[in-house]
Amino acid sequence: MATGMKRKRIAKSTSKSTHPLKQRQTAPTRNIVAEIVPRPEDMGPQLERIAASNRTTFEKKVWTLLCQIPPGCVSTYGLMASHMGSSPRAVGNALRRNPFAPQVPCHRVVATGGALGGFKGHPSKNGEGVTIGEKKLLLRKEGVKINEKGVVLGTPWSAFVS
Question: Is 46-141 in CATH node 1.10.10.10?
Answer without folding.
Answer: yes
